[in-house]
Structure formats: C-alpha cells, structure tokens
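Thread: quick sanity check before group meeting

JM: Hey all, I'm pulling together slides for Thursday and realized we never actually wrote out the predicted structure for the chain we discussed last week. Dropping the sequence here so it's in one place. If anyone has concerns about the input, flag it before I start.
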Amino acid sequence: MATAVRFHETGGPEVLRCETVEVGQPGPGQVRLRHEAVGLNFADTYFRSGLYPVPRPAGMGVEAAGIVEAVGDGVANVAVGDRVTYTGFINTLGAYSTERLIPAAPLIKLPAAIACETAAAMTMRGLTSAYLLRRIYAFAKGDTILLHAAAGGVGLIVSQWAKLLGLTVIGTVSSETKADIARAHGCDHVINYAHEDVAKRVRELTGGVGVNVVFDSVGKATFEASLDSLKRRGLMVCVGTASGPIPPFNPQLLAMKGSLYLTRPALADYIADPAEKAELAGELFDHVAAGRIKIEINQRYALQDAVQAHRDMEARKTTGSSVFVI
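JM (edit): ok, ran it. Output follows.
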C-alpha cells in the first residue's frame, strides 16, 4: 500500500486529503516507481482549484524523482533499479505519493551526480528555464531581461543561467529578504514591487530603452507593467498567472506600446519531442552537476503536510524550490 494526496472536489488547500491506495503491477508501457522526493509547483494549485479541470477524485502533483521498481511489457527506455525524474501535465498527475504507476515515456534517467531530491526540485523549473532561455528568443550577449518572481524556483535558475549567457537580469521581488536572495543568484538589479514602480524603474535602469524580454509568471497584477517595461518590438512571455488570469485585451494595445510580441508558452510543447527534451535536460543536468547552476531547496515538507505546503506557496512565503521528502 502507498500513501497519496488526492482531492475529491475543487477548492482551497483544505480539499487535499492524504489517503492509502493500492498501487498494483505496471501494465504495458508503465513502470512502478518508488518516490524519494516530490516537487511542489504553483501549477499544482491550478489542478486543485479547477482552473485545470481533471476527472475526480484525482491525484495531485506532476513532478517527482525516485527508483524504478517494476516495468511493464514494452518498456525499453528504463529498467528496474534506474534512478529517474519526470515532469509533465495530465500524463504525470499523481506525483504526491510514496509509490505509483506511471507511463514510462515521460521518465528521464538521472546522472549519478544529481540526487533525487535535487531532481524533484528542478525538473519542471529547470526544463522551463531551459526552454525560456534556449528556445523562446535568440538572445545575444548584452541583452536585458525583466524577470518577475526572481526569488522563486524558476527565477533563481533563470537568473543563474542568464548570467552564463551574458545577459543583464532585472528581477522583481516582494520583500528585501527575497531581494537579497535574487542578487545572490545573479540578478544585476532588483526591484521591490511592494514600494517601487516597476516600469518606471526599468526605464531608469535601461536608459529609457526598456528590456528585450519579460518573463512574467505573476499574470494579472503585473501584466501592464510588464508591457510598459519592454523596448520597441520586445517580447512579453506569459509563463504563469500566480495573481490571477490576465484580463482580455485588444491586441491593438501591443501596437500602441511599440509593436510588441506576446507569447503564452507551455512546457509540454517544448518536451513533447523526445530528442528536444533530452537536449534540454542534458544541458540543464550538465550545468547543475558542474555547479554552474545551484538548486536551492528552501522548503521541505512531508506528504501529510500538503495542505500547509499549498498555503505557504499561495501566501508567497516560499523561496527557491519546495519538495516533499518521502
């Protein structure tokens, strides 16, 4: 028997339940995986709240790392005893568990230098950072980015990776403690949006020009300031809606603010091709294994504390990455 966090109705953190479940044997194309650590991501709240609708009762979480304990017929990419990590969407939902069945296709073998706990803290965040910096825009040394939530899990990885590419990073945070964390991980400039005008400060820092790209995971609360921070023909990348969905707007607004570009990418479309996923994961793992990118695990929880973990995350009490330790 395994322990799993599930929800039977949508709502706040209180709908999460820790339950005992039977795992069974893997079917064709599946493996039975024993988790060592599970990733906690803001996107998990979208399933719980119903923003991402799924049949219920449902498991929670889409990212974890552990050991393959059994394989079903037709599985060739992993074997019993392999250390693996994964992230995804509907096909990996149910990660908040001690053990589970999962399709073998999303699994990524871990190099010896990377622990399961580190992998669970970085697979989604790291692959997201990888496609943002290596696929979304043809960055050149000296380009400038505006990075919202710079002290968060994705923010800390993007900041470090951006410095490896020679970019200037302007990060936004909500407190001075988070500002110190962002600076320590590569932000050249930090804006505390609790008492600073983000767009105005960006213009001051860029000599009135604006930034090449904005990475905005906040959404509703920062959308207008993000657009106003871009240079002419700059790119707005909407990567999340932590403050709520972006309200409908007339695309003419993009023309009025400098012929701006806007995209709302999803990780699933950048790891759908196995070869591309392997390339992005390989680059990420190489940086982490070599110490060029450090993964900060600043919160650790037990599965039984899932309700509190979600409350902490939604209250913006967390920094870096959070994991459930099994």
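AS: nice. Residues 118 and 295 are 7 Å apart (CA to CA). Residues 2-123+295-325 form a domain with the Quinone Oxidoreductase; Chain A, domain 1 fold (CATH 3.90.180.10).
JM: adding both to the slides.
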